[in-house]
């Protein structure tokens, strides 16, 4: 009864925008109310922005644009990516892609592959100062300017907060349009604001249907709804309760068409709760397996309707005593509902865990480290040396030492400062599955620097239970950054060095491996050195399909 009364009071406090639901720290009490605009943004956007966005999409289509490239990081890029992957491409509307990597191979791929004259570039950053986003803007604006004789602005749109430096910069450069988002919404809570809806409109998504479902989620989470019927409060309380009992690995299993939804949930949970030495650790992208490969630190969350194989796996996990939370979702419009209830659940879980769910103190730490490394590069003409190993005996020894120190309840994070390709994905996915199956530890996989705006906060500020493996490689081609004294390759390498230094400063166990020219082969070679790819199964243990 006491827990129920506390949760009911918490739900009322959240809707009353009472910062005391999360903290009693004086400074945070003043700061938190500035970040609660997400609570009613879906209703607000439905009232005043839907027709505006539909008209805007018609305008750019009428002007001959067939593609859009969103330039952003973290909260500005993940919801648009999920929307594109969930809804797919609608004929006659823009084919939207997302650039959130400073890897020069990725930047070059978009520069070469997209039809330059028919691509609309969306510069998306809440603060207007995100280093990666501004570097993307400079590179693509310069290229467009060279083609158009200095009239590149018609191909650019900005999404930012009022008063940001980007707002003025977009005006100076003659951007086609600037959408000013409400300033009281943090990036990872912005899916249902302009940051998510401008790309959605360009994709031809039915905004009314998406926001209808979001408003259903809002109503379901309000204080008037009995707790038994409040999906956000129930989910948040369950996740916090399981974490308190040691099950802090929130293992996501998202069925079609929601396969990519975990990208967005991963950032929301990791950045919101990964601080003060605790946090919910999202595990996205691990395939479901037999119960025997999991420790007792897991809670599984199934989104959508799984096929027969996935449902059999979920039932086997339940039968073995692992908690499984099921969240119904059928059509792409259900993303609106899921976006909101997860935001509310994260706020509830943070409050129950005594965590401010709206700041990200350790994200700035890695940014500061990167800036320091870049200053050293500009002064000395080279990046600082850091300890690293190569595939071979040295990598095997370093990884063996790192993994022998792992304890039940730890997790292994693969941090790949590499271009994301199908071959790299396949090699890394096989490695993480082998690590999980052999060691019964949760695994995460992130591409850098993208994950710095997602799980990066959790890595430094969350529980000291991570074992970190950083993978880097040389870049065969590079791309200059206009107005900067460094290139995209240098920026990516500086971010990797800054990230590694932040982990080491926090006493985290970390190994850095420099891969060879054949990246997939190098990953497989390192994997063979660390765990057997065909583990010896216990008698009677199900191997799965």
Summary?
The protein has 545 residues and is of the alpha/beta class. 47% of the residues lie in helices and 13% in strands.
Q: Multimeric state of these chains? A: single chain
> What is the number of independent domains?
3
Largest sheet: 5 strands, parallel
Please state the structural category: alpha/beta
What portion of residues is helical? 40-55%
Distance between the termini: 44 Å
Report the CATH superfamily of the largest domain.
Glucose-6-phosphate isomerase like protein, domain 1
CATH-derived topology of the largest domain = Rossmann fold
Which consecutive residue ranges, at least 5 long each, have pLDDT under 50?
532-545
Q: Looking across the biggest beta sheet, what order are the strands in? A: 2-1-3-4-5
Q: What share of residues are in beta strands?
A: 5-15%
Number of helices: 20
Average per-residue pLDDT, rounded, comes to 93
CATH architecture group name of the largest domain: 3-Layer(aba) Sandwich
Shape: globular
Radius of gyration (Å): 23 Å
| CATH class placement of the largest domain | Alpha Beta
**What's the count of strands?**
13
Fold and architecture overview:
The chain has 3 domains: 41-205, Rossmann fold; 212-353, 3-Layer(aba) Sandwich (Rossmann fold); 361-530, Glucose-6-phosphate isomerase like protein, domain 1 (Rossmann fold, 3-Layer(aba) Sandwich), CATH 3.40.50. The longest helix has 20 residues, at 334-353. It has helices at residues 2-15, 26-31, 41-48, 50-62, 78-87, 104-113, 131-148, 165-172, 194-202, 207-220, 231-244, 261-273, 308-319, 334-353, 361-380, 393-404, 422-439, 456-461, 488-505, 519-530; strands at residues 67-71, 95-99, 119-124, 156-160, 177-180, 249-254, 281-283, 298-303, 324-327, 411-416, 442-447, 466-472, 509-514. Residues 532-545 have low confidence and may be disordered. With 545 residues, it is an alpha/beta fold. The chain is globular and about 65 Å long. The two termini are 44 Å apart. It is built from 20 helices and 13 strands.
């Amino acid at each position: 009864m006491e827990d129920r009364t506390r949760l009911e009071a918490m739900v009322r406090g959240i809707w009353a925008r009472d910062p005391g639901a999360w903290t009693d720290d004086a400074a945070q009490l003043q700061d938190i109310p500035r970040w609660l605009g997400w609570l009613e943004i879906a209703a607000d956007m439905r009232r005043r922005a839907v027709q505006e966005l539909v008209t805007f999409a018609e305008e750019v289509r009428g002007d001959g644009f067939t593609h859009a490239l969103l330039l952003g990081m973290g909260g500005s890029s993940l919801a648009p990516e999920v929307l594109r992957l969930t809804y797919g491409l609608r004929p006659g509307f823009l084919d939207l892609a997302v650039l959130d990597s400073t890897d020069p191979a990725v930047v070059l791929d978009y520069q070469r592959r997209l039809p330059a004259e028919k691509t609309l570039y969306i510069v998306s950053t809440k603060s207007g100062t995100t280093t990666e986003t501004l570097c993307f803007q400079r590179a693509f604006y310069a290229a467009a300017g060279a083609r158009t004789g200095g009239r590149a602005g018609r191909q650019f749109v900005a999404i930012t907060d009022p008063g940001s430096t980007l707002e003025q910069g977009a005006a100076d450069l003659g951007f086609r349009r600037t959408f000013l988002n409400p300033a009281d919404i943090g990036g990872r809570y912005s899916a249902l604001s302009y940051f998510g809806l401008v790309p959605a409109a360009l994709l031809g998504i039915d905004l009314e249907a998406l926001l209808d479902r979001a408003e259903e989620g809002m109503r379901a989470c309000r204080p008037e709804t009995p707790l038994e019927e409040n999906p956000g409060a129930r989910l948040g309380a369950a996740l916090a309760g399981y974490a308190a009992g040691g099950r802090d690995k929130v293992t996501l299993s998202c069925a079609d068409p929601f396969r990519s939804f975990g990208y967005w949930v991963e950032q929301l949970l990791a950045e919101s709760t990964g601080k003060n030495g605790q946090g919910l650790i999202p595990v996205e992208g691990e395939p479901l397996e037999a119960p025997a490969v999991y420790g007792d630190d897991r809670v599984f969350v199934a989104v959508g309707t799984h096929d027969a194989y996935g449902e059999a796996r979920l039932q086997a996990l339940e039968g073995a005593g692992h908690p499984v939370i099921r969240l119904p979702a059928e059509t792409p419009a259900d993303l609106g509902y899921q976006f909101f209830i997860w935001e509310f659940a994260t706020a509830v879980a943070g409050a129950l865990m005594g965590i401010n769910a709206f700041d990200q103190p350790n994200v700035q730490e890695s940014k500061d480290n990167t800036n320091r490394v870049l200053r050293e590069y500009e002064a000395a003409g080279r990046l600082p040396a850091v300890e690293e190993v190569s595939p071979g005996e040295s990598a095997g020894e370093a990884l063996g030492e790192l993994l022998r120190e792992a304890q039940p309840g730890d997790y292994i994070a693969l941090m790949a400062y590499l271009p994301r390709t199908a071959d790299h994905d396949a090699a890394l996915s096989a490695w993480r599955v082998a690590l999980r199956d052999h060691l019964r530890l949760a695994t995460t996989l992130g591409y850098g620097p993208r994950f710095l705006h997602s799980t990066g906060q959790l890595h430094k500020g969350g529980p000291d239970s991570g074992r970190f493996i950083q993978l880097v490689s040389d870049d065969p081609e590079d791309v200059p950054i206009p107005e900067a004294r460094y290139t995209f390759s240098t920026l990516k390498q500086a971010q990797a060095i800054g990230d590694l230094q932040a982990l080491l400063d926090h006493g985290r166990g970390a190994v850095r491996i420099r891969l060879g020219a054949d990246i997939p082969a190098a990953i497989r070679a390192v994997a063979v050195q660390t765990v057997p790819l065909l583990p010896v199964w216990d008698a009677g243990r199900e191997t799965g399909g």
